[in-house]
Amino acid sequence: MKMYKAIDYFFPNWNALFSEEVEIGLGIDALKMLIDSQEKSWDAINKKLDDAIKNDEFLNGLDDELKGSYFTQIYEYELMMLSKLKMAQRHFSCLSIFSFFEGRLKALYTKIENEHNLNPILNNRPGISDYWGYLTKQYKIDKNEIEPLYTPIKQQQFVRNCIAHNDSYFSKKDINEIFLMNGLRTITVGEFYQLEIYSSDYLLNLLDKMSTFFNKLLRAIDDRYKEIKIENGL
Predict the structure, then answer these.
(1) pLDDT per residue over 91-146, tens digit each?
(2) Any bridge partners for residue 229, and if so which?
């Protein structure tokens, strides 16, 4: 199994950040390994079915007119079911990735707030934007290098919301909310559109973006921690 290394570990001035380094690194690596394992399983299942079709002597012995009818009755439903299952699994992975991302931002927010007693987030159901706003406006990290890494991830949150709330469908009025990446495309379905994660590359690239983001964010948080200690004469 392929091994990953999501975080470039460093020794922070704020010791509490080291546990977050470990959690983030393990989380991203585990998600990548899970996706990789699932895709290999699908490849094996598809190959097994392809071999069954190729070696079906009864199917191969039919004339062309009857082949289509036999194939539809015996194999087409199974092929459609496997396609649906693969789509559902990739959707679940996408939801898990964003749940992980938001969870680690929340953990960082909680550590900072407990340490410094700044203005807590008042939103009863805070999300990614709230945690980012806290880091940049309350904790005041230097966001110059990090915001360009945050924005592409935030843009993909529409994909997550679309999957979670509308089974990956969206209307024409939301077309400008879509920022396509490799492995992600849109399909026209009547008056609506549907997002399709046609390759696991989308999920793995998304995790790579999060890895790069967290590598920079952890250092920015640590730099700000050191600044605050100096400002307070500690």
Answers:
(1) 999 999 999 999 999 999 999 999 988 878 877 889 999 999 999 999 999 999 99
(2) none
Q: Average pLDDT of 174-180?
A: 91
Query: Pick from 144, 149, 160: which is nearest to 202 by CA?
Result: 160
Mean pLDDT value across residues 196-208: 97
Going by pLDDT thresholds of 50, 70 and 90, the confidence category of residue 5 is low
Q: Give the Cα-Cα-Cα angle 200, 93, 98 (nearest 5 degrees).
A: 115
User: What CA–CA distance (Å, rounded) separates 234 from 226?
Assistant: 9
Over the range 179-190, which residues count as b (16 or more CB within 10 Å of their CB) and which as e? Answer: eebebbeeeeee
The DSSP string of the chain is ------------SSTHHHHHHHHHHHHHHHHHHHHHHHHHHHHHHHHHHHHHHHT-HHHHHS-HHHHHHHHIIIIIHHHHHHHHHHHHHHHHHHHHHHHHHHHHHHHHHHHHHHHH-------SS--HHHHHHIIIIIS----TTTHHHHHHHHHTHHHHHHHHHHTTEE-GGGGGG----TTEEEEEETTEEEEEE-STHHHHHHHHHHHHHHHHHHHHHHHHHHHHHHHTT-
Contact 123, 193 (CB under 8 A): no
pTM above 0.85, yes or no: yes
